[in-house]
Design brief:
5-stranded parallel beta sheet; 2 domains; Rossmann fold; alpha/beta
Length: 365
Amino acid sequence: MAADSRRRPTASDTPIVAEALLDVAARLSDLCARPPRWQGEHRAGGAGSCAFFLISAASVHLVEAAVAHPRIRAVDVSVETQGVFGAIEASIATGRLQVVIGGSGPGTMGLLPAIPGARSQGASILVLTPRTPAPLVGAYDIQESSYFHPLHAVGAELYDAFVPLGDETELPRVVTRLRHLFARPQGSVVHVSVPTNILARPCPRLPALDSIEVALPAPSAATVRRVAELMDGSGGRTALLLGNGCVPYRPRLAELVRHLGAVHFSTPAAVGILPGSLGVIGNAGSGDVPRRLRELDVRCLIALGTRLGTASGGANADLLPDDCSVVHVDLDAGAVAGNAMATRNRPLLSVTADLGEFIDALMQR
């Protein structure tokens, strides 16, 4: 670990940077909690998040801070990728942000194989890694110290955000950005790279995270009216297609199905989400969903929590009746259901909104 002439503060002093980062993670875990997909019991007052780590000399301050924090459970793993996969499962199950403490250099790259999966699954993960401080780059202080190969930045494009911290004075701005990133219902995977020589420095005063409110995007009144027109004016029934993103909203979706008098079916990732399903489309599908949609005269499909990828049934051009319109709801405006064969050449309304906000809006129509 890089030497630092500054003394490490005692417990009575201002928290050091490593301690502050772990405390920020614990606070964000509470503030940005999403509906859990695990319906079992949670221990009251227990750890809100886990910190998965592979111990190394460069990351010892971060690991010590995780072990000492009362709201974080430190979990040691044998390889970095295993830590990310553990964080994915914990985040999806609990709806809470999880922490991964990586090593430096090759250890940072060891995280990368699991990052695309973390994003596609909608996990919320804060990755913290140490790196060589600028004065020692090229001096082989720790594994990652080359002038020509800044290993801490390899794979930065795989994350939702990559933050190469340069100095502790940047932390108030960085923490505010983290508050916005982890407020996203679709999750965030963020990598913060910290020079080893500032991990033990006193942390500057940080903004009060609970004073920063982030409103979720909701459908406009005009959008809700248009959805109602497509349902009521079709002359047929409405069907809901439930995907992976619907799992946390199971009770509210059951109310919506009753409220609309709709039928429903699911993708493989949401199989069994509600009773009475017409079947499952996509890989490992069951039931003859295309035939049932035609028998029931379905003329409006509302796709929720799915991007209609090939594995989720989006490649089936014969899925929907010819005169069926499609309403596709996704928080990501770039997720266009019209790219799927199942929805191509059919009237399509794309709604960019939080799924929970959309459900509430339809319940009030």
